[in-house]
Structures
1.
Amino acid sequence: MNITSPEIRDLLAAEYVLGTMTYKTRQRFERLLKEDIFLNRAVEDWQKRLTPLADAVSPIKPPAKVWRNVKKDVRKQREKGLSFWQKLVFWRGLGLAASVAAIFFVVQSLITPAIQATPQFVALFEDQQATPAWYLQVDQKTQRIIVKTLSAPDIEITKVHELWLLPAGGKAPESLGLLPDKGQKKLVIPASRLTQFSTATGLAISVEPAGGSPTGLPTGPVIMQAKIISL
Amino acid sequence: MAADNDTLTALIKRCGEGDERALKTLYSMTSPKLYALLLRILKKPATAQDVLQEVFLKVWNKANDYYPGKGSVMTWMSTFARNRAIDEIRRFNPIEPGSEFVESEIKSEVGGWQPLDEAIKVSEARSIEECLGRLEENQKQSIFLAFFQGKTHIEIGRVLNVPLGTIKTWVRRGLKQLKECLEV
C-alpha cells in the first residue's frame, strides 16, 4: 500500500476510523501509521469528525465487576512500577529528612547566584556509602531546578547522568535533564511537569549514553534514588 | 450522570497525576456510554466488559497524552473503545456465511439513533448529527452500519443486499459529504 495522493490518504484514513477495513488491511495500515505523520494527522482529523457520533448511544451501566477489575489492574501496575524502583537503590529512609535540613543551610551559601525565593522542594542524592552526590532545589515559581554537585560518582567519558522524576501511580519515569559532573547547573522544567512534584514518589538518576536516553525512558542502570522533600 | 467536557478534562488531568479517585469518577460518568457503544459492536456482554476494562486501563496510562486538540474527552476515549472493539471482531469473527439480517435490524439501527442529550452539547457532536441528517438514506445507513456495528463493506452489502462496489461508492460519497459539511 503506497500512499502518494492526499485524496487517497484522506479516504483511507476515513475508512480506517469508520471501521470498514478488513483485518489484514487494518494491520498494514497501522504499520504505515507508525511512519507516516501525514497519515496520522488525517486519522486524527477523521477521529474528531466521526467519533462524536458515539455520544448518541443510550447509556447502559456495566456490571460492578468491571470497575473492580479496572481497580485491580491499576493497583497491580502501580505495585510493579514502585517495586521496580525500590529494588534498585536502598532507601535511606527516616534519617534523610533531618540530614537534608542540615545540609540545606550549609549548601545554600554555596549556591551562587542565590535564588532569592525559598525553594519549595529539595532533594539529596547520596551514594551507597552515604556520601552526598548532588543536591537539588526546586523553585516552582521560576520553573527551575538548581543542581549543586557535591561529589559526583565516576563515570565513563561517553556516558552522562540523567535525572528522572518518578510520577505518582507507578507511571513511567520522566526525564528532568542531565546532571553536571561538577559545579552548579540550572534545569528548566515545563510547568506541567513541575506540578507533578507534589505527588511524585521520588527522583532517580540513571547512567545514559552521551546526550541522554535515546528512548525517553531510562536505558542504563539506576544508580541513585532520592525522596522529594517539601519545605 | 451527564458530564461536560471541562469536568472530564479536569478528571483526565488528575488521572495523569495518579489520582485513582479521579479515575473512579471518570469511570462512573463515562463507562455507560462506552459500554453501550461496545455492546453494539461486540454483541457479547462478556467481550464488551473485557474491552471496557482494557479501555479504562489505557485511559489511565495515557491520561497525560490527552490534549484538547485531540477533540473532546469522550471522543478520545470512544476512539480507544471503537479501535479495540473493531480489532476484536476482525480477528475473531470472520464473516459468517448465512447470517440472517432482518430489515428490522437496519431500521432499528438507524431509527433507534437517539438525539443527543441536552446536557452533552459539545459543538462537534451537534455538527455530525446535522451533517449525517443531510446524507442520502443509502449513504447514511452504510455509515451507520460501519460505525455502530463495525461492519466491513462486504458485510454491509449483505445487510443491504447490494453489491460490494455500490457499498464502496455509498460509503465514500457519504464520507466526502460529511467532511464537506463539517468543514463549513
2.
Amino acid sequence: MIRSLVGGSIILPAILNDLLAADGGGSAGLAPRSPHFPPKAKRVIFLYMTGGVSHLDTFDPKPRLLADGGKPVSDNPGAARYLPPGWAFKPGGKCGTEVSDLFPHIRECMDDICLVRSMRGDHNDHFQATLGMHTGSVSFARPSIGSWVSYGLGTENTNLPSFVALAPELPYAGTQVFGSDFLPGVHAGTRVLAGKEPIANLVRRAPSAKIQEFELSLLDRFNRKHQLARPVDPALVARMKSFETAAGMQMAMPDVLDLAQESDATLALYGLERGSTKGFAWQCLVARRLVERGVRFVELIDVGSHDNWDAHGDMATHAPLARNVDRPIAGLLRDLKGRGLLEETLVVWTTEFGRTPNTDGPKGRSHHSSAFSSWLAGGGVKAGIAYGATDDYGRLVAENAVHVHDFHATILHLLGFDHEKLVFRHAGRDFRLTDVHGNVVRELLT
Amino acid sequence: MSTRSLSFGLVLSALAAGILYAEEKPAFSAGQIDFFEKKIRPVLVKQCYKCHSETEKVKGGLLLDSRAGVRQGGETGPALVLGKPDQSLLIQAIRYSDEDLQMPPKHRLTPEQVKDFEEWVKMGAPDPREGKVPAKEGIDYADARKLWSFQPLQNTPVPAVKEAGWPRGDLDRFILARLDERGLRPNRDADKRTLLRRATYNLTGLPPTIEETREFLADQSPEAFAKVVERLLASPAYGEKWGRHWLDVVRYADTSGCNSDFPIPSAYRYRNYVVEAFNRDLPYDEFLREQIAGDLLPAANDEEHFRKIIGTGYLAIARRFGSRAKEFHLTLEDLLDNLGKATLGLSLGCARCHDHKFDPIPTGDYYALYGIFESSRFAFPGTEIYRHTKDFTPLVPEPEASKFLAEAREAAELDDKIENLKNEKKRLAREEKKAAEEATPKLSEAAAVQLVDAKDPAKPKRTAVDAEQDLEAARARQEELEKTADRVPKAYSVMDGTGRNAAVQKKGDPAAKGEEVPRGFLTVLGGQKVPAEELGSGRRQLAAWITAPSNPLTARVMVNRIWQHHFGKGIVKTPNDFGMRGEAPTHPELLDWLAHRFIESGWSIKAMHRLIMLSRTYALSSEENPACSAVDAANTFLWRFERRRLDAEEVRDSFLAVAGTLDRAPGGSHPFPPEGSWRYTQHKPFIADFPTQKRAIYLLQQRIRKQPFLEIFDGADANATTAVRPVSHTPIQALWLMNAELAHAESMNFAERCMAAFSDEPARISHAFELALARPAEPDEIIETQEYLREMTATLNEMQFPPEQHATMAFASFGRVLLSSNEFLFLD
C-alpha cells in the first residue's frame, strides 16, 4: 500500500532516481557497494561479552596454573596468589581444541571455530577497552566497526537498518560503541529491543493503520505539490522516500521479531522457550533472522555495564553468564550452518579483555588486556584451529600475538576490504578503523 | 615534512647524529664481517626487511637495511648501544621482554638467533652495509608560510563589475565578479515571505510569527528588511541560535565524559554565558580572551569578574577520561585539539605524538602550549574513584569563597585518604593474622595485636583497628562536607597556577619525558614565548596572541564560520581546517575583505550579520537554473541560495513554537541529584533525560549518550568538535515524525490552537498554514484539507471515538502531516 503511494518510478522522474542512485542523499547512502576485492563473508554477527571474560576459565587451558593454584606469584611479601581455573577443560570436536565446562555446547562446535588464544588490547579499564574493541580507539570517539562495515558495504534491505545492535542493556561507554561518530548517521547502529517498541518510535501512534495511510497519502500530495517548483533536489526526494522506508520498517521489523514462525526444533536448538524474549537465545535467533533478511552487521551485547563478566570477587559469577550464551551461540552456529548461511556470514565472539592468572578479590580475577581469547567462525576463516598461545600462566602472549587492530584488520579483510583503504575524510585527514596499525592475520584465513 | 615523533630539538640533535653515522666508516675484522654475513644478515633480510627497508616499508622511521639506519634507529631512539646488548632497543625487542616492543611482531626469533644478535652487539655490531638513513627533514617554515592561510590578511580591492545596478554593496561585487568570470547568472530575488522565513530561522532558529510576516509584507519601505534584521538580532532567541553554533564547535556537554559520565551541574553557566555573549555582541576577540583567560582579565566588579571566570568554562569542558584522575594528559590533548581547530582552524592534536605530517606544527610547539594549560588548575568534576569535585570557582565574595574552596578540597582529598586507609587496614590485618599464626598457638589474638613497634618499643604499633577508626572518622567528615557541597554558586572553570614549562612526551606517552620546552605559541605564526618573568600560566598572553589583529587565522576562521551559517557552507569548506589538508577558499579576496571588516567593526559578529544579510547575494531565490547547474551544480559560486533542512533543534523548537507550547525563558541548571549523593561508576554511569518545554539548546547534553532526539536529526557530537553537521534523511527521522510522543502531543496542541483562533474551518486551515509555513493556504489546499478532515472524521466515527473528540483529532492528524511536510522541514 505504501509502495503505491510514494515508491516506484511513477512519481519519481528518472533524473531523481539517477540522483538517488548516485548517492545524492539520505537512504541512498545505504545502496549496496562492492568492497575492494571479492569477499569471503558478506555480513557479520558480532557477539560481545561485556565485562571481560576470563580466558583462563574458558578457552585457554593452563595446567601449570592449575598445578600452582594458591601459590604466590612472586617472593614479595603480600604477593597475589595464582587462582586455579575453576572449570575442567575437555577437548571438543574432531579438532580436539580444549574448552572448559563453562561452554559445553560451544565446545561441541569447535570444528567450526577459529579460536585465537593470543589476543592483546591497549587498556585495562572497561570503558576504554570496550571502545577499543568497537572503534579501534581507547580514548577518543570514533565510528564503530559496525558503522564502518555499513559505510563500506551498504545494505541489501532498505526496509531494515543496515546495522542493528541487539543490546538489552547498554555496555560500558554507552551508545558510543555502536555509534557512527563522524560517519553519516545512516550507518549508526539502530538499537533493537525485545518488546512492544523494538526501535524508538517504530510503533504506529496514529489510531489505526488506515489513518496512518491517510496521513502518508496527504503528506505525499503536499510534498509532490511542493516539489513541482523544485524538481531536481535529491534531498527532498530522499525525505519523501524516507517515509516509504519507515513504513516498510514498521512492517518488516515486527516480522523479524515474530518468532512464532520458527519451528519447535529451531527454538530447541537455541534453547529458547516459545514466547520468551529473554536472554541471549532470543538475541541469537533474532540475529539469524536479521542476517537472513540482508542486515549487514548485527551486534549482540549479552549484558550491560553491571552484573557482567567482571568477576573480581568470585569466578563463580561466570557460570550463569556462560549459561546465558553457551547453548544459544552453539544453536546459532548450527542453525546458520544448516541453512547454508554460515559460509557467507562471519560470526565474531569477543570481549574487552581477559582476566589475570592471580586472584583479585577472594576468588576472582582482575582486568587483563595483555592476553585474552576470542574466536571467529564462518565465511573465510580456518575452522577447527586454535591460533596463538599465551605463556604457562596465561599472563602474556607467548606467540602469534593478535592485537585488537589486527583482529579488526582481519575482519575487514574477510569482508573484502583492505583495512588501510577503507577510509573516511574527516577533520582534514583520512580516518580508518585501524588508525595507523593493524596487520591481517593470514594464518586465520582459508 | 618530517614524520618523526621526537621534539623539534631532538630532531635537530638526531639530524646531527645521523650525519655522523652516515660519514663514519668503521673498520671491522674479516671474522666479524663473516659473523654478520652468516648469522645476522640472513635474519634481518628474512624477518625485518619487510617493514624496515628502503625497498619495502619504513615502519616507525626505522631502516634495518643499512649500517647507518640501524645505528640511527627510529622513532623510539637508536636501535643499538654498541657493545651493550642489554641497553639496545633492538635486543629488547627481539627478546620479547617488553610487552609493548616485540619484534618481529608475529614470530619470535629462536633463542639461538637472539643470542647471535646479542653477541653481534657486544662485538660493536660489525656491519659492512652502506646505504641511507631515513630522511629527517625539519620543517621549512619559509615554505610553510607560503600557504594562503598563513599569509597576512590582504587588503584586496573591491572588483569592478559590469552590471553596476545589481550589487547592493561591496560583498555583492566580489560574488558577482566570480559569477561573471564563469558566465553564471544570479537568480532573481526570493519573495518576501521566503526571505523572512529564511532570515528568521537563520538568526533565531524559530519560524516567523503570523504577525511578523504580516508586518514585513505591509512594510513597503526600502529599509523593511533591515528593520527585520535588527529586530531579529535584538531577540534573545538570536543568542540561543548562534550560541548553539559555537557550542557545536567547542563540543559543549553537561557531563564530564569520564567512564561514569559525571554530571556537571554548573556547566550550564558557560552555556548561558555563550548565549548572552552573542546576544550582547561581545566583541569576538574579547569573547575568545575571556574563554581562554577570563579569570586573569581586569574586571570592574565582582559580577564582571565572575562572568569572565565562567567564560573559562570553555577550557573546563574539555573531555575527562578514565575512572581516576590519571588521564589528564588526554584532557589537555582534547583541549589543545579543540583550541587549535576552533580559533585557528589548525589541528594541533597530531603534534602530541609526532611532528604534524601536513602542517608546520612540530611536537615542540604542542608542548609549548601544553605547558600553559598544565600550569593552570582545572575544576575537577569527580570520577568513579574520586567522586568529589574540587577547584570549581565559587562565585561568592571572600572570605566565603576561600572557605568553600578549602572545604571542597578537603572533601576531595579525603577520597585519597580513605583509599589509603582502606589499603592500610587491609595490610595491617594481613600482617596481624600472619603474626598471630607465627606466634605460639597459646598466644591469643588480643595479645598478638599488642605487638610493639620494633624500632620504638615504647610506642604501641598501629593496628587495623586504628586504621578502621581513622577510616570511620574520615568518612564521617566527608559526609558532613557533602551536605554543603551545593551551598554556593560555582563555576566549572579554570584558575591559574604556577607557570612551569612542560617536557615533550615522547610518542605522546606522559611517562616518556623528553626535553623541556619554554611555554609559547606556534612557530609558524611567530613563535613568541611566554615572557620569562610571567609567574603564572601564560594564558593571558596566549589569548592576546590568538586575538592579535595581525594573527592571519583568527579573524578568517570566524568570518568563515559566520558565512557558513548564513549560506550553508563556508568560503573555506573545512571550517576547522585552514591547514595544508583543508580546502582552499572559493573566494579568497572576499574572505580577507570580510576579515578586515570584522576587525574594523571591533570584532562585532552582529556587524557581520548585517553586512551579509543585507547583501543581494543573501536575498537570492533558491530556484533551480539548468544553465547555471550545468556549469556549477554544487553552487560553489552562489548563483542561488542554498536550500537547507531544518537542523535538529529547529525541528523540535518549531513543533513547540507553532503549537504555542514553547517556553521562551532561558534554561538554568538541570535537575541533577544533589552532589553529595553521587555514586556513579563505570558500571552504573550517570544517564538521564530531563524533558523541558524550553528551547532545545537547554536540553541535557551527555557525553556517554547523545540526547536521543538530537541524535536522530544529526545533532552535534558532545565528544568532539562539530564544524559542519552532516545532514541525513533517514527512516528513523520519518518514524519520529510519524510516531513520536512529542510529535503527536504537539500536533494536538497545534490543532487546539488553530481551532481556538477561528471557528470557521477554512480560516482554521489557513491559520495552520500561516503558523507552520508563513503563508496562507491556497484555495485548492483548503478544499483538499477539508476533504481530508471529513474523511478522517468519518473514520474516527467508524472507530467509535467519542464524537466530541473527532474534530480535534482530525485536525491534529492534518497538523502532523503539515509539520512533516518538506515545505515545513526545508528552508528555501
